[in-house]
Specification:
The protein is of the alpha+beta class and about 180 residues long. Helix content is about 25%, strand content about 40%. The strands form 2 sheets. The protein has a 7-stranded antiparallel β-sheet, sandwiched between helices. It has a 3-stranded antiparallel β-sheet with strand order 1-2-10. Residues about 1-25 have low confidence and may be disordered.
Length: about 180
């Protein structure tokens, strides 16, 4: 089969599997699939997807896989990155370090550090770190780190602090709950 046919079949299967995702219907769903790393996301049609092959206004480094941007509020976005945390011990060390020290960054204020799960089946162990960064404007960030296929990944969700809760419920949480791990 050609690569185009394989992508089409994968997309069709993902649409069928994800049609039950709250807030998303088959007519409103698009996908980000990373075959190299073995995962995909179901995304609202209101999300713009940027990758190293389609960078748009962004500059991508070797650790950046994708940037998912809210079409209606471009300051709300999710960066999909490779992480240096590469095993379960690394996740445990990460949570310990964040709990005890946080981030050495000006304007940083820790809100929460906890273990959680991500994915369509909520079966992938992850470390979640929510924090504020003071600035103009102040931002609230939700960093979710997990291990898959022996590699670490960090999804960095960011929104203006005054709109974070709404953005988390409408954008970040649905994406984190839509991940399919191969």
């Amino acid at each position: 089969m050609t690569q185009t046919v394989m992508r089409w079949i994968s997309g069709l299967l993902a649409v069928c599997a994800l049609a039950a995702t709250p807030g998303l219907t088959a007519e409103k769903v698009q996908h980000y699939t990373n075959q190299q790393h073995g995962f995909s996301f179901a995304l609202s049609e209101d999300v713009r997807i940027f990758t190293p092959d389609n960078p748009g206004p962004f500059t991508f480094g070797a650790h950046n896989l994708a940037i998912l941007v809210n079409r209606w509020k471009p300051s709300d976005l999710i960066m999909v990155n490779l992480s240096e945390v590469a095993d379960e011990k690394g996740l445990s060390d990460l949570i310990s370090g964040l709990e005890s020290q946080g981030l050495p960054q000006p304007g940083y204020r820790k809100i929460a550090v906890r273990q959680t799960t991500v994915g369509k089946n909520q079966d992938k162990r992850a470390v979640e770190h929510i924090f504020d960064l003071k600035g103009q404007p102040s931002r609230t960030m939700r960093q979710v780190c997990f291990i898959h296929r022996g590699k670490g990944f960090a999804l960095v969700c960011t929104a203006n602090a005054d709109n974070y809760q709404k953005t988390d419920e409408a954008f970040f949480e649905p994406v984190l709950r839509s991940i399919i791990f191969e």
